[in-house]
Write a structure and sequence with these properties.
This protein is mostly beta strands and about 675 residues long. It is built from seven helices and 45 strands. α1 packs antiparallel against α2, α2 packs across α7 and α4 packs parallel to α7.
Length: about 675
């Protein structure tokens, strides 16, 4: 492995420093060198390892030995691993298994919680990972191949011949060019057979939320929830009745009217009157929702991940990297920038940073953190370092931000007067040690947390509440004469149970809200797809009944589709779209209509007829290869009426994914 590491480092440096027009030649020369090498790697999968997205365990010798294989060593908590996923998804769109390319995820857990198979399965659903993944829970293959960090990509040719090692993120363009060149060079030597793929079906969730991330209070009567798995925000009343639906149900990056806007896995939310600020995490942007105007706009970020560690740009010109949480303090918005391991600020009005640097309105820049992934405290904010900060809260009396620093398994504080960063609880003394984690209250020794994602400060009782995410617990942190004490407040083990505080169960809680009176906490219980309510006075946990109601003005209309079997050579498809109307009905005699967007080359459809429920769409498909995927978009203009006699038009868009499997069965999925 050392030989591959040294050769890859030399090649990458040569590629990056050469003129762009020479890149192809450099890749070809390196491929010649690697294909002529006299060594192979031992990539043997143990029979007891659990697999995902395949119908049986894979064996390298029989399933992968004649393929170009990309091994992705990842762990699902790692933000840098998540940054690599778009590049892998693009490879899968560009090259099929029959072309000779196979991506295999090797899940190599950092935290104990990540070794649990059901947690990995939930993460694969959350991040739309459909290629084969194996759970190397004890890091056997990791150690055998001498992998050093997450993420690491190992590219192997036929016969397990090592071709390239890519460590970390930021290699997207090189990865795409290298894989394309390798497939061309190896044409005729790669097998065209398929694999027993069986991506897990998107499991039905009885609750209206899917992987909720964060929440905040809009005012005394309304709450804002980031429904991350549905790529949307919900505004509810205190009982959980939905008042507004903003964005969703599919990912996108679009400003405009509330019902037309698009987000991608939004996380942190903060509110000021009828204005909601959103950390649109996978769009790497900060968005603003104005409920009065009914509009969404982008305040910072381009929709693409940036690598700027300083900032200072104004508005959409400033690139960001996976903002995960927000905290509004006066006229500035603080950002937990998980992707660059820093704390940033967005100035909503003219101001100064630390009373020195002028910052015009719209300026977005670094407040603290060098960009190194460490647990380093320092009085100089540029010399401090964070490790994937993912939660923020504000202690006004102490004039400090409190930060859930997930990868160091600690809570940190940032003084807003000068940016000094200090420890609160958790973490290791060695700033480079990010493996000091556990589940220990301070009465039993140094407090230990496991990947906390949420924090909430309660001014009413001068208490800090922590969502200790991978311990599936809530912790209470109080200042004492010696520093800080930390104890378990609620949660016993991973599960979904309400009841007394220490008997209740959570599943990776990610967001917290402390009510102003100090009597309740609201918890985004992410993997249970719900909001839990903690009654501190009664000592109990129950669930907030988040629900769509007849009066929800933005209630989405749901749709499901049937499946059909066609010959791989193509043919006629009859698609039945069942529109489920809840609380409203189609206005009799109104001019309902529908249309399809322009179809891809080779596809055709019968002219649209009258709209009916169910709606039948007649299509004709061209020859399909296994792995082909086509997106179709159907627009409907409906006129709806409520039982109270309120009638209104509604434009709906349904995105249909048509995907050919290795068999001749073609499945149709609808998101709408």
């Amino acid at each position: 492995m050392e030989e591959l590491t040294c050769a890859s480092l030399y090649f990458i440096e040569k590629y990056k420093t050469a003129p762009q027009e020479d890149g192809g030649v450099i890749i070809e020369e390196f491929l010649d060198q690697q294909l002529g090498a006299e060594y192979n790697l031992d990539v043997t999968f143990s029979p007891e390892w659990e697999w995902f997205n395949v119908s049986r365990p894979l064996e390298y010798a029989s399933d992968l030995d004649d393929k170009l294989v990309v091994l992705d060593f990842f762990t699902y908590c790692c933000i840098n691993c998540l940054h690599v996923l778009p590049s892998l998804h693009q490879l899968e769109r560009d090259h099929s298994i029959e072309d000779g390319l196979v991506i295999v995820g090797v899940h190599s857990a950092k935290f104990e919680n990540e070794r649990v198979s059901s947690n990995i399965a939930a993460a694969l659903q959350r991040y739309d990972i459909a290629h084969p993944v194996v759970n190397d829970a004890q890091l056997v293959l990791w150690r055998r191949l001498e992998i050093a960090c997450w993420p690491t990509l190992v590219i192997l040719g036929p016969g397990c011949r090592p071709l390239l090692l890519l460590v970390g993120e930021g290699h997207s363009a090189l990865l795409g060019r290298f894989v394309s060149a390798a497939l061309r060079r190896l044409r005729g030597r790669l097998g065209s057979g398929s694999l027993p793929l069986a991506p897990a079906a998107r499991p039905p969730v009885a609750r209206p939320l899917r992987f909720p991330g964060k929440l905040c209070r809009l005012d005394a009567r309304r709450l804002v929830l980031s429904d991350s798995g549905h790529h949307r925000l919900l505004v509810t009343d205190n009982s959980g009745a939905v008042l507004h639906v903003i964005g969703g149900p599919t990912a996108g990056f679009l400003d405009g009217k509330l019902g037309e806007s698009k987000f991608s896995s939004p996380q942190g939310v903060a509110a000021d009157g009828d204005v909601i600020y959103v950390a649109d995490t996978e769009n790497h942007a900060i968005r603003k929702v104005d409920l009065q105007a009914g509009l969404v706009e982008t305040l910072a970020g381009t929709g693409q991940r940036g690598d700027d560690l300083e900032g200072g740009g104004v508005g959409r010109a400033q690139v960001l990297a996976s903002p995960w949480d927000l905290c509004l303090v006066g006229d500035r918005l603080y950002l937990a920038m998980a992707g660059s391991h820093q704390i940033w600020a967005l100035f909503l009005r003219d101001g100064t940073l630390f009373g020195k640097r002028p910052c015009p309105a719209g300026t977005c820049l670094r407040v603290a953190g060098s960009g190194q992934e460490e647990n380093r405290n320092n009085s100089y904010p540029q010399r401090a370092a964070f490790a994937q900060p993912s939660g923020l809260t504000w202690d006004a009396a102490g004039a400090r931000l409190l930060v859930a620093d997930s990868e160091s398994s600690s809570v940190r504080q940032v003084a807003l007067a000068d940016g000094a960063v200090r420890a609160v609880v958790g973490g290791a003394r060695d700033p480079t040690n990010l493996f000091e984690f556990g589940d220990v209250d301070s009465a039993e020794g140094p407090a230990r947390l496991q990947h906390p994602l949420g924090v909430a400060w309660s001014a009413a009782d001068a208490a800090l509440y922590v969502a200790d995410t991978y311990n599936h617990k809530l912790k209470l942190v109080l200042a004492d004469g010696r520093g800080f004490s930390c104890r378990t407040l609620a949660g016993s083990s991973r599960g979904d149970q309400t009841g007394p505080l220490l008997e209740a169960q959570f599943n990776e809680p990610g967001g917290l809200l402390a009510e102003p009176a100090g009597d309740q906490l609201l918890v985004a219980d992410t993997n249970n797809h719900c909001i839990k309510r903690v009654d501190l006075a009664a000592g109990t946990v129950d669930e907030l009944d988040v629900r769509m109601t007849r009066d929800s003005p933005d209630r989405p209309t749901q749709a499901v589709t049937s499946s059909a079997t066609v010959r791989s050579a193509g043919g006629a498809i009859s698609l039945s779209l069942e529109v489920l109307l809840s609380g409203v009905s189609l206005t009799e005699g109104a001019p309902h209509s529908w249309r399809l967007d322009q179809l891809p080359s080779g596809w055709s459809a019968a002219p649209p007829g009258p709209f009916s429920v169910p709606l039948t769409v007649q299509l004709h498909a061209p020859p399909l290869r296994s792995g082909d995927a086509v997106r179709l978009r159907l627009h409907a203009q409906l006129f709806l009426c409520s039982p109270a006699g309120l009638c209104f038009p509604r434009e709906l868009t349904f995105e249909l994914l048509v995907e050919a499997r290795p068999s001749t069965r073609v499945f149709y999925y609808s998101y709408g």
